[in-house]
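Support case: user asked for a sample of complex input and structure output to validate their parser. Sending the pair below.
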Amino acid sequence: MSLLLKVSDLSVAYGSVPAVIDASLEMNPGEIRVILGANGAGKSTIIKTLLGLVRARTGRIEFDGKHDLTRLKPHQIHRLGIAWVPEGRKLWGSLTVLENLRMGGFIETDNGKIEKGIAEMFERFPRLKERRDQLAGSLSGGEQQMVAIARALMSKPRLLLMDEPSIGLAPIVVRDIFELVRTINHDGISVLMVEQNARQALTLAHWAYLLETGQIVEAGPASEIATKERVQEVFLGGAA
Amino acid sequence: MDTFLQQVMNGVVIGSTYAVVAVGFSLVFTVLRVVNFAHPDIFMLGMFAGLWSALHVSDNLIFVLVAGAVGAGLSGVVLERVVIRPLQGRDMLITLLATLGVSIILQNGMAIVAGPDPVPYPAIIPQTFIPLGPVSLTVRQLVNFVACAVLLMAASYYVRGTKYGRATRAVAELPEVAAAFGVDVSLISLVTVVLASMMAGVAGVSVGLLYGSAWAFVGLLYGLKALIILLVAGNRYFEGVVLVAIVLGVIEALITGYVSSGMRDVVTFLLLIGVLCFRPNGIFGSYKT
């Protein structure tokens, strides 16, 4: 079984400031993997580099054993089956909820499939159906997160890249979001998540990485990572 | 009262032309984040493309309008690929200066070819008057108004009702996110410039037919006005730009009719200053850029 994603020795810098240093990670199809790290650790940079929004200095990103993502443009990468749930949602506030979803299905040319996709999203997220013609910018944080996830699912991706889905949301909403991710994963979608909320993320993921100032310092099954001292201290509030 | 209504009507006709130029200018500004000072000169190129087609190929009205669109559209392609695209991502001031340079080149280049003075336009449309109660409209004014109205409605439909129009709005607001959802931002930018240019080209021919002349420096009249309209209306709503453009046309016509044509521009600028003091983002608001 070939790897879905293989990142080898990835280094990314903004000008002369290194953001990611020699990072390597992998994903098998069907997994949920999480990258933990504090603010500024370089988590979002990794996601953006995977998406082609930021260029890697060195290193290789192999998708599906055949595509080198470091050579592709963002719109080409999306077409391979990779979708983004951005940090802070980044919905198009001047477009309606429905229009945001349609944009999620931009690469689909069959109108019938797009309509079907939208109907599926509204079935999964009935609250969004109520708000379909509202401007996306007017929704609450939790609702926006749902739209952001629905938008990403519209293209029926194989890999979902989620950047801090819990940020700015109430704990009860975070729980629902993470349950949703579990369901999405059961449907066959692999998820690479970047999170500060270690406690919940580690109960969700199969495998975890710890990123500190641009370098991966720990890697292993989520349950194992949860017991590591530095994870305990930094994220989980001290000894278990 | 009759003078008033007549001037209002004249103003609406001229305002509709301002609207077409301003909307194209606003679209390029909003989507590409570029102040294209050469946009009014693309209007001028369309005007001359129509002129030459009328003189050398066919003086059929539709053909001439289309020739204007094609001439302007091609100019837009060249401008976007050669000047705008290589400078993308740099400071807005840089592209502003570059397009300003292109504007000067186009104006003076055309003046070398066609002369610095207005050149007569073939009289494809008759000069007849259509009496409408207290006012009268010339056939030329009617054609101009209809052409501009059709262009504006087509642009509005494109932006609001089509897949690419929606993608254009997405690129205008969050280009990175649009790219990550499969939108070829570079292509959308090119298409936007071409559409804005084609619109300007048709308007250019229409104005050439209205006044019966084409002029290398006509862009000077429209350029500053397009910028003023954009600043006053804000770039958030298409309809806002159209409204301000028409109001500007009407105000100008009324000042010209009741005061003097010399005062016309003074009033325009006072209006701009007044609005910007109270609503720096324009009356109808702007996207954050």
